[in-house]
Amino acid sequence: MIGVKEAVSIALDNLSDFYSTAKDQFKDILLEEVELSDDKKYWRITIGFTRPVEAANILDVALRSKSYERDYKTFEIEADSGTVRSMKIRKV
Question: How far apart are CA 59 and CA 70, in angstroms?
């Protein structure tokens, strides 16, 4: 069984891999939540990060030259193998 530190490392590595083109735009990447499922089969790791928000129109560009939004992703990782089973949006 992998430990919590390894599960967090796997989640961070996968976040970086999945968003390789955008990761330089992410700020404040932080571990938010860690949970081992009741049956001890899965780690659920939530990573939070701040990313730039796209301007909807030219007025938004003028008013919000640098707007950011906080996003959260929850990774479900098999505790035995370290395989990522899913990555989901975590609404707060």
Answer: 22
